[in-house]
Amino acid sequence: MHVAIAGAGGRVGLELARQLTAAGHTATGIHRNPDHTDAIAAAGATPAHGDLIADDAQTLAAHLDRADAVVFAAGAHGTGTEQTSLIDGDGLLKTIDAARIADVTRIAVLSAFPESVRSGELGPTYEHYLRVKKAAEHALTESDRDWLILRPGHMTDDPAHGTIAAGAALPDEADVSRADVIAFLVSALQHPKLGRAIVELTDGDTSITAAVEATVARSAPRTQR
Q1: Residue 179 carries which DSSP code?
Q2: CB-count exposure of residue 35 (10 Å: 0-12, 13-18, 19+)
Q3: Strands, E, within the chain: which ranges?
Q4: Confidence of residue 185 (pLDDT cuts 50, 70, 90)
Q5: Which segment of 28-42, 49-63, 104-118 scores lowest on mean pLDDT?
Q6: Confidence check: pLDDT of 122 > 80
Q7: What is the b/e burial string over 47-84, where b = at least 16 CB atoms within 10 angstroms of the residue's CB?
Q8: Of 144, 151, 140, nearest to 198 (Cα)?
Q9: What does pTM read for this prediction?
Q10: For residues 203 and 177, is the Cβ–Cβ distance under 8 A?
Q11: Where does the signal peptide begin and end (predicted)?
């Protein structure tokens, strides 16, 4: 399996590259900051400079050549509402178009736990982030691509436990190991029957394998092509 990672220089992207290559897969690490090149290569991915703000979809599509899936792990990471709109919003829309141009059938997105409706007021900046993410992800669900949207709780640097809680709507946000989130993603991307699904993830007692199987069982059918 070959996976293109948009936002490969972040902690999620680097962990994904490490786990993919450790499992015998290959990855292209798309990144904007040239300072991230060495870290991406050290994680096992092939670095590819791509700018989700400046590049158009046709340019980005060149980095998706021969990819079985593209994972959108990019984000503005608190740099302001304008950057959030450009990266988390428009960046995902460009990635959808790039996947269509490159004929990549599957897009996976690392999103956010929808806590704004469960934990009260979170402030205008984070509420803007959630609105932008929701609009872009809605566009993904309306596209002709197969998609997987992961909504993890607060990701920690804890070692992988090999277990997780996964569901369409978990009752509470909780911490979750970043390594376990990525293990779930890598396993899900390999599953031949995975359709279209949105899944929330927190720490839990279900094995990664069982959690993926349950997600696959309730996923919508794959797009017919």
Answers
A1: H
A2: exposed
A3: 2-6, 26-31, 46-49, 69-72, 106-110, 146-152, 154-156, 163-167, 175-177, 197-207
A4: very high
A5: 104-118
A6: no
A7: bbebbbeebebeebbebbeebbbbbbbbbbeeeeeebb
A8: 151
A9: 0.93
A10: yes
A11: none
Closest among 50, 46, 9 to 26, alpha carbons compared: 46
Task: Check if the beta carbon of residue 160 is closer than 8 Å to that of residue 177.
Answer: yes
* CATH code for position 191: 3.40.50.720
Count of positions (residues) in the chain? 225
Asked whether residue 118 carries a pLDDT value surpassing 80, the answer given is no
62, part of any domain: yes
pLDDT of residue 117: 46
Q: What are phi and psi of 109, to 5 degrees?
A: -125, 130
Whether the Cβ atoms of residue 13 and residue 7 lie closer than 8 Å to each other: yes
Mean pLDDT calculated for residue range 88-111: 96
Tell me: pLDDT of 31 over 70.
Answer: yes
Average pLDDT, the chain: 93
The C-alpha atoms of residue 159 and residue 183 are separated, in whole angstroms, by 11
Residue 223 domain-assigned? no
How many domains are contained in the chain? 1
- Which three-class secondary structure string do you get for 36-48? HHHHHHHCCCEEE
Tokens of 213: 């199987």
Parent domain of 146: 2-218
**125 domain-assigned:** yes
